[in-house]
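4.2 Preliminary Data

To establish feasibility before requesting continued support, the project team ran the inverse folding procedure on a target of 479 residues. The structure was first converted into the token representation described in Section 3, and no sequence information of any kind was made available to the design step. The complete token record follows.
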């Protein structure tokens, strides 16, 4: 009986469990959730299940996965371990919703794989002895699947980043930590260099908690560099910080990912032994001492040196004839509907002017040809045949010139056009024409020619447009 009291509800953590007769199902009297019951005779399994629960609810998901996996290896029939393993793999922690007055699943580690297709979920169902046992977790799994789909939708609207800064924001007294001060110093110098930097205190400001995971996931998987700040082992091992650096280490270990151990940078201060930082494949991660006043410049130089003191964003390609916002500024997604006002489009104005330069002479020469043909018909007397022949030759010559002008008029109107919305107000319009490529920015035409690379500045940032095989890309460069 004492062992039964030690069982925790996977939803709320309560241990007031009511056992349903003739089944392996219990009901939590604290939150009302149903749960599958373990083998109470195996004391080691009970202890490991409680250990794994604590690991999962403190965001130590990798440790929880290892513990649940060990339980399953010892007893493949332990279905409660499959449930816990699935929750850990998908970073699910239940939190109480004050409005709904229920515990709802929240995702603290996004996994793109459909939970209903996961082998842990399939194994859970296969080891159940009744439909009632299967239904215990089916409802939870469907909730998690819905949560996954919502997160996936939101991911498409989030920005990519170059650098991810991980740190513990508050100290044990609830005040701003030394780690946060270091993070802010690095954030300021790196953003001044034009780098896109994720820092939770800035990036997640004014965002609701349900949006955190999509933003963090996108930042962790797009950043080329990860900076872990730790002035103590406790800060490095804190729940959120550990969750972040362990996920980036997974990227480093993935042979298909471009990031390497050199992409991971640790920053420490007095009181922190750099040997206490995590290792990757038993190798020491490069560490920087924040007590050295030049530390932030050294880190910035190291990152920028990868491109010979130039950092270039991953190019964003424009689609022909479409309007696309480039993530070079933080703009509310609901406002990303900038439209080019054609009346103010300088390329359209230039194109119309060029077309008029051909169509006006075309019409004028057309009138001349008509006059020549009328005059020729007036000379019907055979004695004036020479004059008639001259008028015919002149008419044919002018006709050929007129045909050429009309062809040039048509070619002037032919172009491939690309639109790149660099901000809500300003649009880059790239036009591939027969005579010259043209690029306008906002209301200004700033390029006309055949060059393949064009650089320009906007709001103290330098950009480069590259054209190759009628494929347009816009990147940010930092000197």
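Position-by-position output of the design step:
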């Amino acid at each position: 009986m004492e062992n039964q009291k030690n069982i925790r509800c996977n939803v709320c953590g309560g241990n007031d469990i009511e056992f349903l007769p003739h089944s392996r199902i219990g009901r939590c009297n604290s939150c009302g959730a149903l749960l599958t019951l373990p083998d109470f005779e195996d004391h080691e399994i009970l202890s490991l299940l409680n250990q794994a629960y604590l690991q999962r609810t403190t965001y130590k998901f990798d440790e929880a996965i290892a513990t649940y996996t060990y339980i399953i290896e010892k007893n493949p029939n332990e279905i409660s371990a499959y449930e816990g393993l699935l929750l850990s793999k998908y970073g699910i922690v239940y939190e109480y919703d004050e409005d709904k007055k229920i515990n709802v699943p929240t995702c603290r580690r996004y996994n793109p794989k459909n939970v209903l297709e996961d082998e842990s979920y399939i194994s859970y169902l296969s080891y159940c002895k009744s439909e009632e046992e299967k239904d215990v977790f089916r409802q939870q799994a469907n909730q998690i699947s819905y949560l996954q789909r919502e997160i996936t939708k939101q991911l498409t609207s989030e920005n990519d980043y170059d650098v991810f800064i991980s740190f513990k924001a508050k100290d044990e007294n609830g005040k701003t930590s030394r780690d946060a001060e270091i993070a802010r110093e690095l954030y300021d110098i790196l953003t001044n260099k034009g780098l896109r930097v994720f820092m939770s205190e800035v990036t997640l400001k004014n965002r609701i908690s349900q949006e955190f995971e999509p933003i963090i996931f996108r930042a962790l998987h797009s950043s080329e560099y990860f900076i872990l700040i730790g002035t103590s082992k406790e800060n490095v091992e804190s729940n959120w910080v550990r969750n972040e650096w362990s996920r980036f280490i997974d990227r480093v270990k993935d042979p298909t990912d471009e990031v390497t151990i050199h992409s991971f940078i640790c920053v420490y201060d007095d009181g922190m032994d750099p040997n206490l930082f995590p290792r990757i494949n038993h190798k020491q991660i490069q560490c920087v001492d924040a007590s050295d006043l030049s530390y932030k410049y050294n880190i910035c130089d190291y990152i920028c040196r990868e491109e010979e003191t130039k950092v270039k964003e991953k190019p964003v390609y424009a689609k022909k004839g479409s309007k696309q916002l480039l993530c070079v500024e933080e703009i509310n997604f609901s406002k990303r509907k900038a439209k080019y006002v054609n009346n103010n489009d300088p390329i359209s104005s230039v194109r119309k002017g060029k077309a008029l330069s051909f169509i006006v002479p075309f019409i004028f020469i057309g009138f001349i040809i008509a006059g020549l043909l009328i005059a020729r018909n007036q000379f019907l007397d055979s004695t004036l045949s020479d004059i008639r022949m001259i008028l015919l030759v002149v008419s044919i010559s002018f006709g050929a010139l007129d045909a050429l002008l009309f062809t040039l008029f048509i070619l002037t109107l032919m172009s491939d056009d690309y639109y790149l919305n660099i901000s809500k107000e300003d649009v880059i319009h790239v036009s591939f024409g027969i005579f010259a490529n043209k690029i306008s920015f906002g209301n200004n035409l700033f390029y006309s020619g055949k060059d393949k690379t064009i650089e320009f500045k906007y709001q103290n940032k330098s950009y480069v447009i590259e054209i190759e095989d009628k494929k347009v890309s816009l990147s940010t460069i930092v000197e």
